[in-house]
Design goal:
alpha+beta; 5-stranded antiparallel beta sheet; 30% strand; flat
Length: 105
């Protein structure tokens, strides 16, 4: 019974992920990185807040604006093209301490 429940949940999550991916691929907005970052700064007042390496040489960047709380995640490919993968409102900077070693929290 537990295995069936787990399998059903896994399939449900997989369906949601696939549906989200399909919707994203139809709405992704891409431009050369310089154009994309300039647009975020000019239109929304967003500045870079974080950066990380993704697979296949891509770079993920988080942009946000303190004044409005808007945020955008850009994925830049090795060829210099940047695509907006997500955006929204209510951005807050959070700094959290890591739990102590062995702490289950």
């Amino acid at each position: 019974m537990m295995q069936q429940t787990f399998l059903a949940l896994s399939l449900g999550f997989a369906g949601v992920i696939l549906a989200s991916h399909a919707a994203f691929s139809q709405t992704a907005q891409c431009a050369p990185r310089e154009t994309a970052t300039a647009s975020l700064a000019e239109k929304y007042g967003e500045t870079r807040r974080g950066i990380g390496l993704a697979g296949q040489g891509a770079v993920m960047e988080v942009y946000a604006a303190d004044a409005t709380g808007t945020w955008t995640i850009l994925m830049t490919l090795p060829n210099g093209m940047s695509c907006m993968v997500a955006s929204g409102q209510g951005y807050e900077t959070v700094t959290e301490e890591l739990p102590a070693a062995g702490d289950p929290a």
